[in-house]
Design a protein that fits this description.
CATH topology of one domain in chain B: Alpha-Beta Plaits
Largest sheet of chain B: 5 strands, antiparallel
Helix content of chain A: over 70%
Distance between the termini of chain B: 75 Å
Strand order of the largest sheet of chain B: 3-2-7-1-8
Largest interface: A-B, 34 and 23 residues
Radius of gyration of chain A: 18 Å
Largest sheet of chain A: none
Helix content of chain B: 40-55%
Number of strands of chain A: 0
Order of helices and strands of chain A: HHHH
Shape of chain B: extended
CATH architecture of one domain in chain B: 2-Layer Sandwich
Order of helices and strands of chain B: HHHEHEEEEEEHHE
Shape of chain A: globular
Structural class of chain B: alpha+beta
Oligomer: heterodimer
CATH class of one domain in chain B: Alpha Beta
Number of helices of chain B: 6
Chain lengths: 121, 227
Amino acid sequence: MWLPFIGLLVGILLGLSTGIRVPDAYTSYLSIAVLAALDTLFGGIRAHLEKTFEEKVFITGFFSNIILAAGLAFLGVHLGVDLYLAAVFAFGVRLFNNLAQIRRLLLERWSKKKNDSPTSL
Amino acid sequence: MIFTAVTTIIGFMVAIQFQTTKEPIVRDTRSVMELRQELTVEKERQQELMEQLTKNEEMLEQLQDTSNVETVIEDAIDDLKRSAGLTEASGEGILIEIVPYFDQHYQGGAIRSVPSHLVRMLINELNIYGAKDIAVGSQRIVSTTPIREVQGVTLINSRRITTFPLQVRVLADDPEQLHHYMMTSEVKEYLQYENLEFSSTPMKDLTVPAYDQSMRVRYMTPVKEDS
């Protein structure tokens, strides 16, 4: 349960300690990649709670989303259209949907547990 | 396990993004020459500030030493009035005369006055080459002197400057040098284009009149100490 959080911390520490900097021109790609990764992560958590989680789908989704988002941003820069906004919008909407679903599932689970064991209170 | 790997990657990316956006690298691209120039400017400023400081300290000392504060303050006020141009000033300087000059092919109307932009240019050049006090015609140039053109006539201090020859009296520490500078100045050429001839003579004794109107101070108010 706590392993992902430890992983997150390790990642942040690793990133801060290496001191890698991305050139200014590529910051938008990185930010969109982060957004895509977050989207996939929350999608994975939701799938896990719904018990429809599949490792292969998750891993492929993770990488393909990042690459696609960055590619879209790249295309947008070369076409002179802010296409990365489309990716930001799509990922943002999906992120919120996933979060809402996760919340609902957790609430459901919590209330079920409460009903199952009324004597414990 | 997979989640852990994914969150690690996310954490890594977030950390990099954070570092990148937090402190963008500002590179100092100035060359040695530019740095030297800036250093010189700063040194000059320091010098100026030091001079001011010494002057003020001297005045403070005088105020503390003398029992008669009034004379010191009066001296200071006189000094300020002199530098503001409210008193007559005399000393070494140059006399510039501007007269119309017509050759036989001249076409065009009468010349009524020296164009205002040329007067401005002349004053700027005089100031660059070390003029202390300037009077154009009978008008003393002070820091708020307006030089305008109204209906083809130049007005200085809201007075018409139409007489020829136009005499510009300039006080300077080194009149000989100022004279040489002015004889090779750009404004001389520009005056020639307007059919005006420019001559300058160094003078041993020259008097510039005082500014005869009341000074309007618009953006300053006296400071009152809370006591």
